[in-house]
Amino acid sequence: MKISFENVDKVSALLTLNIEKADYEEKVKNALKDFSKKASLPGFRPGKVPASLIQKRFGAEIKAEEINKLLSEEINKYIRENKINMLAEPLPNEEKTPAIDFETQDDFTFAFDIALAPEFDAKLSKKDKLTYYDIKVDDALVDQQVQSYCQRGGQHVKAESYQAGDMVKGTLTQFNTKNNTLEGGITVEDAVMLPEYMKNDKEKAKFEGAKLGDVITFNPAKAYKDNATELASLLHITKEEAEGMKSNFNFQVSEILRFEPAKPSQELFDQVLGKGAVKSEEEFRQFIANDIKKNFNTEAEYQFIQDLRDHIIKRIGEVEFPEAILKRFMKLRNQDKDESYVEDNFKQSLPELLWHLAKEQICDQLEIKVEHEDVLETAKTFTRIQFAQYGMVNLPEESVTSYAAEMLKNEQQAQGLVERTVENKLAAKAKEAITLKVKEVTIEEFRKLTEKKD
Fold it and tell me: Which of the listed CATH numbers 3.20.20.210, 3.30.2000.30, 3.10.50.40, 3.30.930.10 matches domain 155-260?
């Protein structure tokens, strides 16, 4: 077999393979023998089909299959041994590949277009200078989180008189135009309202200071500004019926419920973090501060990677890509998309491709390797963050691991987690390789900085 590699320009090449009969003959013979052992044709027992018939019926197909296998092996071997920094996959060059007939030909020529990675230097040194933002956690942030947990752990308690924000329960009775009970009208027992959310201040004011047993006359249509959906829900009628509702109603207060947040106590600490995880308010606040700091560190690390990316791409400057070959490859990979897809998306994919290549260089330089356990840890971190948003901050380790493992079964999610893991490791090593200035900022200052950069 003869293989030739010719640079067409700086970023593309032509790989040509000349295959002779001697290169594949033995492989085809062995493949035909294996096929004969299992072949079954009408009139013959399995494995007893004559070799001549096998050759006639399936010879060209098996020959083509073995030659294609050989092609793939030899191309991969050549690229690996010659350390060709290739983008995408080799694409057949139909113009340079003569017509093929597997039945009659013995010798073949195959030509492939190769997209080469552009040459540039992305390696890090102390000449590279970046700022790392250390987001500080202050008492006000901890107070907010404590209050949030107290709200989640709170409960409704019975009250004797109404205050803004209370929930009232009672019986609603429809009035006629003379403000007397309407015979056959609407009656709703155990009606529930939050007067604070009424949209008419005059109607809302009628509930101020109301006590158990009080009877309040108000107009639901005015209170909710003729919102048919809210009226239908309150009065247990259809939306169509609610649209014509203008009546006043009596509301007799039977119960007033006031929401009281929980107080910082051992009961709350155990509820949020698990029994005995902390034993004082000071420890509770310290746990919260540490948790906030972990989340802030995740944001700071992400921003550092974005800043590093921008810095490296700017330092590299303009590079030439084998656009024609890459567009062909992109079209091949997106055959379900319309004709405009490649033109609409190609240009914006190049910075991402450049950063991907730059990361590979930096990872080689800093000897960064990613194992499955590293990716699992990243998935577990994301799992904890997700559940923390719902106040679940003390999940058992086995539950976190199980949920993270499920995430990794999703190919798209797994790829994203691999990329994030690479970048996390890269960020840690890059800080040591460059000149780093650490700047302490508040979360508000950090948000403003990142908004400007976006």
Answer: 3.10.50.40
